[in-house]
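Morning!

This is the sequence you dropped in the shared folder:
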Amino acid sequence: MGTTPQPDIDVMLLLEGTYPYVSGGVSSWVHQIINGFPELRFHLCFLGSRRDDYGEARYAMPPNVVGLTEHYLFSDEVMPKPHGRSGDAATAKLVRDLHEQLRTQDDTADGGRHSRAQVLEQSLRAMQGKLTLDNFLHSEPSWSYLTEQYLTRCTDPSFVDYFWTVRTMHTPIWTLATLARALPAARVYHTISTGYAGYLGAVLARLTNRPLILSEHGIYTKERRIDLFSAQWVSDNMPVLERNAGDAGYFRELWIRLFESLGRMCYDAADPVIALYEANRLRQLADGAEPASTCLIANGINIPPFAATRAQRPPQPPPVMCLIGRVVPIKDVKTFIRAVRVAVGRMPGLEGWIAGPEDEHPDYARECRELADSLELGSNLKFLGFQKLVELLPKVGVVVLSSISEALPLVLLEGFAAGVPAVTTDVGSCQQLIAGLGPEDTALGSAGAVVRIADAQALGEACTALLGDPVAYARAQAAGIARVERYYGQPTMFAKYRAVYEDALARSDDPDHATPRGQVATALREGQVPGRVPPPLQAEETS
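The structure's back. Tokens below.
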């Protein structure tokens, strides 16, 4: 017998709502990774909601991207045309078993992982057999089961709302299982989140017996929970006035449990499970990740282009506080605008800049502009749209991040490298980036200030305090430069990801002699960077 030929794709990146159609930190990181490994052939699998929700690609494809597959989870094309089906007892049992297994999984460490693997295996087998999407949506047993669940668990709002919620939730599960069988083969799969992309990764790993890598920038289930609590499109059986703080209606909890289940399936299938900083790794463990498979790889940036801009900075810090990011609710741009009002009251010549696209959430962008008008900020506040950071940062006095959720924001590192301190909300790794982590890092000093979420007064006051104190500003500037150069350079990140890719590719090529689960993660946790090939930058320098 001849050997099975290797796929032409080295790494398939599974991307949900990000690169190449949405700009921002995660997409910038994806572009960085692809360019950082020119010898690897990448295929991109982009998952979106509907095609009309996205414009043209925001990034020029690097030459080592050998293919792009797009799949839109909620487009009309994925839905089968409705027609009644009688179904049978076997179909009815499959519907019930799949629902109950997803609803009540055993979450104990070993038993939970084994149970979830069985759920995935059984659901894939069922979807390939009698439990088609058509059967699930339109058969009499499915209708009976949905009616029973509605009467048992949810009597308000209407059954129509319940039916459409369940239909919307479950359709992507089938379409992704079908997509997994249609995608070209790859040696390694790399998902940049849990959620739908992570579920697709788990399916691909199960179907192909190839390795899956997970790099989780933010915690997907946490971010979806934030989205769902404020979402207007989710019907709610719990009126706002009757809801305690933190309560969610039945439909919101259904969505949350779905994403938690998908996340656990991804954690079980992935090796390694990568977080950007320790607090997120601990959250992954709490959400079901196996400790041995988890590790940290911090984001890194290409420092020299930003460092070169320091010479362009004026002697005194420009009286400009700048939010660099998309104009979307999770960035809490409204708090930034209110903070500009506070800061202008203390420093009349100060300007607030918002540098980022407004097309992702146009209603929110409009509300932000209306807020600025109502606060009579006039020329003190400017919406700049997308900007090239190497041109923008020399004109900025302080980078401001007002987000309600972040992971490890690249924009702070880029600002530090350009000599710009930061004021941020206390989210993600921001405290670590501003104040340091561990004795050696904290000894470098503070690179700015951290304030509470949604505290416009504190945010504005911290910006003016920094801009108005040349000595404190110089110290923060020096601390940011030292911190990014010591801990957050691109070569460090590439060396760790090279070790991850080499390990995964070796396991893919020779599964009979694969390294034990968690081996590369353990090495990275212990501060080792295993690998056999020098990083690309070294190879380029010697050529």
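Headline: Residues 159-182 form the longest helix (24 residues).

More detail when I'm at my desk.
O.
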